[in-house]
C-alpha cells in the first residue's frame, strides 16, 4: 500500500453503524429508491423524509445539507448531497457529487469519512465505486499544498459503504482501480499546479524517471546533446531561447498483446510566447502549458500499477518557451525529425512545433495508434468553452474508440472537422510548412492539421485540452488550478485497448 493520503477502503452494509467523523449520503432529486437512504431514514426516525418534505433537501445536483450530531447513527456528522435525476446519472455526475461533499468536509481536519454508495439504475455498481472513490479523493485535495496553512485537509481514510448484496471480490478490483486512478489524477494536478521555478524540463524529466523506477517502467531521458544527435530540431529550436535546456522523456510499458498505443503530451513548462510575447494577462496561467505531458505521465503510471495487458509508449517533449537573444525568430526555419522543414511565423505557436518531433518519433517506432494531448490553442476554448476538449483525428474508427472511452469515463470531448482545405493555411513560401496560419478563424483545426503532417498516416487522435486542463475559478465539485482532466479518459482508453 502506498503512503498516499487519503486511502480508499470498502465496507459492506450498514452506513448507520460506521464510526466516522462524517457520513456522506447521496439523495436523488426524484425520490428515494435507494436502500442506504431508506435504511438511514429509519434509523434517524424519519428525519430524511421530513427534510425532503420541507424542501430543506431537494436532491438537486451538488446541493448539500449539513446535519451535525444526528441521533440514531454512529457518525458524528451527516452530510446530504444531491445526486440529481436518476435517469441522468453518469460517472461524471456521481464523481462530482462525491467531490462536492468532500470539498466541504475537508476544510477541517478529520480522520475518517464514510460515504454510503447510492444505487443507480443508470450506472453500474462498479462504476459507482469508481466515480465516488475518485471523486471523493479529488475533492479532498486542494491546490494550496504550498501554503503554510493549507485550506484543505485530506483525511487518512475514505470508506465507501456498499450494500451487502454486492459481489465483494469484484468490488475489490474496482476499488484498487479507484485508488490508482485517484493517485494519478492527483499527480497530474500537482504537476500542473507546481510553479515554473520548481517544474522545468530537467525537473519534470527527473520526476518522470523517479515515477518510472517506482512503478517499474522502462524509460529514457534525452538531454540536448542527445536531441541534437537524434535530429530533434523542432524541440531544440523552441527551447533555445531559454536558459533551461530541453528534455525528451520516453516511457515504455510492455503489458502484452500485439499492438502498441502511443500517448504523447505537450510539455511546455512555461509558455511566455517567446519573441511573440504574450501579455501579462495571457501569461498568468501559462505554467499549465505542460498539462498534456502531466496527463500522459499520470495515466501511464496508472496503467503500470494496474498491470493492464497492453503495450504503451509514452513520450513527452519538455521545453520552456522564452524570449531572449537566443530565441527562435520569426522567419527562422526548423527541421523536424522526419525531415520536414517548419517556418516559424509566430513563436507562440510552439506546442505544435515540439509535438512535430515527438509525433514523428512515435510514428517511427511503428506504434499502431496515437493519442496526443496538448493545451494547444486559445481558439479551441473560443469554440468549445472551458469544459470540453476538441478532438481531431485522421481515422474514424480510432476517433470513435477514443471518444467513446472519454465519454464512458465521465469526461467530455467534441470532434472537429479535418477537411483538406484547412491545410491551405499552413503552406509556406520558403519551407514545407509554417507553424502559424495567417488567419485566426478555425485556429483549433489548423493546429490539428499541422500535427497531422507528422504522424505518417498512423491512426491518430489529437485532443486540444487548453480549456479543460485548467480552472480559473473553483466550482462546487472542482478546485481552481490544474484539473487533471483526461487522466480518467486515458485510463479508460487503456482498458478499452485490451484486445
Ligand atoms: N499555450 C497556448 C495555448 C493556450 C491558450 C493554452 C490559453 C491555454 C490557455 C499556445 O501555445 C498558444 O499560444 N497558441 C496560440 C496559437 C496561435 C499563435 C496560432 C494561440 O492560441 O493564440
Ligand atoms: Zn504559445
Ligand atoms: Zn503553449
Mean pLDDT: 97
- Give the structural class: alpha/beta
- Quick one: biggest sheet? 9 strands, mixed
**β-strand number:** 20
The helix fraction, in percent, is 25-40%
Low-confidence stretches: none
Inertia-based shape: elongated
Strand content: 15-25%
Radius of gyration: 24 Å
The oligomeric status of these chains comes to single chain
List bound small molecules: ligand BES, zinc ion
Terminal Cα span: 29 Å
Structure annotation, total helices: 15
What does this structure look like?
The protein has helices at 35-43, 47-53, 91-105, 125-140, 168-193, 201-215, 224-229, 233-239, 280-283, 291-306, 351-364, 378-384, 396-409, 443-452, 487-497; strands spanning 7-12, 22-27, 64-68, 77-82, 112-116, 157-162, 218-222, 247-254, 260-265, 267-271, 311-321, 333-335, 341-343, 369-374, 389-393, 413-415, 433-434, 460-464, 470-471, 481-482. The longest helix has 26 residues, at 168-193. The chain is elongated, with a radius of gyration of 24 Å. 35% of the residues lie in helices and 20% in strands. Strand 3 (64-68) and strand 4 (77-82) form a beta hairpin. The two termini are 29 Å apart. It is α/β, with parallel strands linked by helices and 499 residues long. Strands 7, 8, 9, 10, 11, 14, 15, 16 and 18 form a 9-stranded mixed β-sheet that branches. The protein has a 6-stranded mixed β-sheet with strand order 1-6-5-2-4-3, with helices on one face. The protein contains 15 helices and 20 strands. Ligand BES binds next to helix 12.
Amino acid at each position: 500500500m502506498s503512503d498516499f493520503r487519503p486511502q480508499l477502503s470498502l465496507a459492506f452494509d450498514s452506513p448507520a453503524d460506521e464510526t466516522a467523523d462524517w457520513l456522506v449520503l447521496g439523495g436523488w432529486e426524484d425520490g428515494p429508491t435507494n436502500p442506504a437512504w431508506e435504511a438511514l431514514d429509519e434509523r434517524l426516525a424519519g428525519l430524511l423524509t421530513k427534510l425532503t418534505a420541507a424542501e430543506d433537501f431537494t436532491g438537486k445536483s451538488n446541493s448539500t445539507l449539513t446535519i451535525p450530531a444526528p441521533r440514531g447513527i454512529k457518525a458524528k456528522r451527516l452530510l446530504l448531497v444531491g445526486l440529481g435525476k436518476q435517469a441522468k446519472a453518469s460517472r461524471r455526475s456521481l464523481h462530482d457529487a462525491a467531490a462536492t461533499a468532500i470539498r466541504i468536509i475537508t476544510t477541517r481536519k478529520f480522520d475518517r469519512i464514510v460515504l454510503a454508495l447510492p444505487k443507480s439504475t443508470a450506472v453500474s455498481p462498479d462504476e459507482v465505486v469508481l466515480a465516488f472513490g475518485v471523486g471523493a479523493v479529488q475533492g479532498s485535495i486542494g491546490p494550496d499544498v504550498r501554503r503554510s496553512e493549507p485550506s484543505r485537509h485530506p483525511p487518512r481514510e475514505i470508506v465507501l459503504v456498499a450494500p451487502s448484496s454486492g459481489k465483494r471480490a469484484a468490488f475489490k478490483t474496482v476499488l484498487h482501480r479507484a485508488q490508482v486512478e485517484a493517485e494519478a489524477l492527483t499527480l497530474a494536478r500537482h504537476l500542473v499546479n507546481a510553479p515554473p521555478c520548481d517544474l522545468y524540463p530537467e525537473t519534470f524529466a527527473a520526476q518522470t524517471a523517479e515515477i518510472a523506477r517506482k512503478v517499474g517502467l522502462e524509460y529514457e531521458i534525452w538531454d540536448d546533446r542527445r536531441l541534437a544527435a537524434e535530429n530533434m530540431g523542432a524541440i531544440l529550436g523552441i527551447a533555445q531561447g531559454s536558459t533551461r535546456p530541453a528534455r525528451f522523456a520516453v516511457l515504455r510499458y510492455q503489458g502484452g498483446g500485439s499492438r502498441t498505443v502511443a500517448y504523447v503530451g505537450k510539455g511546455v513548462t512555461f509558455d511566455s510566447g517567446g519573441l511573440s510575447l504574450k501579455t501579462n494577462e495571457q501569461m498568468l496561467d501559462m505554467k499549465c502549458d505542460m498539462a498534456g505531458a502531466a496527463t500522459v505521465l499520470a495515466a501511464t503510471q496508472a496503467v503500470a500499477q494496474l498491470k493492464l495487458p497492453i503495450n504503451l509508449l509514452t513520450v513527452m517533449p519538455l521545453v520552456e518557451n522564452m524570449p531572449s537573444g537566443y530565441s527562435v525568430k520569426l522567419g527562422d526555419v526548423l527541421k523536424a525529425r522526419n525531415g520536414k522543414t517548419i517556418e516559424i511565423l509566430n513563436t507562440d505557436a510552439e506546442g505544435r512545433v515540439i509535438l512535430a518531433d515527438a509525433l514523428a518519433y512515435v510514428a517511427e517506432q511503428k506504434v499502431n495508434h496515437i493519442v496526443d494531448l496538448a493545451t494547444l490553442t486559445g481558439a479551441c476554448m473560443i469554440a468549445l468553452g472551458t469544459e470540453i476538449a476538441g478532438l481531431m483525428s485522421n481515422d474514424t474508427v480510432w476517433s470513435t474508440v477514443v471518444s467513446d472511452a472519454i465519454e464512458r469515463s465521465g469526461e467530455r470531448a467534441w470532434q472537429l472537422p479535418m477537411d483538406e482545405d484547412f491545410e491551405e493555411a499552413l503552406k509556406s513560401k520558403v519551407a514545407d510548412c509554417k507553424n502559424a496560419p495567417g488567419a485566426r478563424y478555425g485556429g483549433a483545426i489548423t493546429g490539428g492539421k499541422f500535427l497531422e503532417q507528422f504522424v505518417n498516416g498512423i491512426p491518430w487522435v489529437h485532443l486540444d485540452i487548453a480549456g479543460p486542463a485548467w480552472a480559473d475559478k473553483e466550482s462546487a465539485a472542482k478546485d481552481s488550478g490544474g484539473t487533471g482532466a483526461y487522466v480518467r479518459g486515458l485510463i479508460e482508453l487503456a482498458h478499452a485497448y485490451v484486445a
